[in-house]
Fold:
Amino acid sequence: MFKNFATTKTALTGEKWKSLTKKDRIELIMKELKNKNLENFEVFDVPDDGRIVFKVLESIPSNKRGLMLLDIEEQLKTNIDKGLTVWLEPIGDKSKLRNLRGITIN
Amino acid sequence: MIMNKNTFNTKNNSVKTKEGELILDSHKLSYHYDRIEAWENGERIAPISVDMSLSRACGAMCSFCYAMMQEPQERANIKTKDALNLLDDFAAIGIKSVSLVSDGESTLSKAYVPFIQHAANIGIDVANATNGWEFEKEKVDQVLPHMTWIRFTVAAGTPEGYSKIMYKGPEHTEVFDRAMKNIRYAVELKKKLNLNVTLGIQMVLMPDFKDEILPFAKLAVDLGVDYGVIKHCSDDEVGTLGVDYSKYEEMFPLIEEAELMSNDQTKIIAKWNKIKDKGVSSYNRLYGPQFLLQLSGSGLIAPAGQFFNARYSKFHMGNLTEERFIDIFKSERYKKIMDYIASPNFDAQNMMGTLPITHYINEALNDHITGKARIIPNNGPKPLHVNFL
Structure:
């Protein structure tokens, strides 16, 4: 049957996570992921809202990256804070023509 | 003839045209109720429609273009064989329509003509949004008889405004002239062959373009297309394009004036629902992609175009140039990702851009399952383009 979460509140980070310094957050994440063989992963940003933005040094195949990142997120939610979400560093537009517009992706 | 209020059906915001009821500012889910029932029963449903591109390439540089924010890790080249296999997979699982819109200019692809012809041959409705620059006579002759609709991106009504918004500057009006020549030919061919295709032009309205609203409406009427539509501009969740939604309201009188320029042949239509939403969605969970899936011109498959960028890699399901779509559709990753965006781990209000292509159906499905407004099966006369949600 369909699981209806339409009105369920979105998971948010707790006070404990918010009170940690950026350095402490990164250490906690890397410690949690040390057994996952993620040598190519670096933590790029860890803002208060629970986003964990990774920089990945080597591209992950398109048929693997979705499940892999969702698994990492699930582990971090379970073991650190249920409000954590996983993202990768964004990539800017590769169109030379459109880049003349001067739009940058942050 | 001036279009009066009776021309609009307030229930679904449809517009009566010479060829039938046209719904641009709402959705058509009620005509596909069997799939809603299957979805509510927890089944893995085939999308009704797919929105995609055959290429990431584009010769334009529109200042409102969302493709600037959609760069994935890799840009594969979708070959004609991949594109035709894709259509066969669509037919096998029950996808009813495909629109070539998404994150690239499909007319630039070698697969463009065979893709459209094959879609029509196997019973899949096919449509295209294009700048029209490469939509020349030879191409039009080969595809127009097979298409349900074509929507030309026409950012402004004046040649200078058009060239400034869509290309390098106001002095480059050659791109406007080229587009108008090709659109006029398509309009002529439609009339000559009495084709069952809807031709429209679209303005993506940003507050800076307000002086182009009335020239745009006049141009639509002058071209003799079936409609000219004015829509909002989407932005990502961090406001990369800098769209100021608070400034839309002051343009309402101009938009209303533009609508009054409608005549028997050409309807000027504003997507009021989206414009008035000011970039804020009423829903948190995302159900629309199960009914309307988006594929990138890079071959990437993700639930929504707003997830194509590498930032959203956890929503990346695979690439159609590396494996068959039908296998991706049947995979665990497809289900897990669709389940995730419908779960409390995802929030459409701050984890994706504004007003996605699935906005109307996201809203309708959310209202349906929360009981706010149930979708009712509609067995009456079908509107135009019923298989495009």
Summary: Chain B touches chain A through 59 residues (CB under 8 Å).
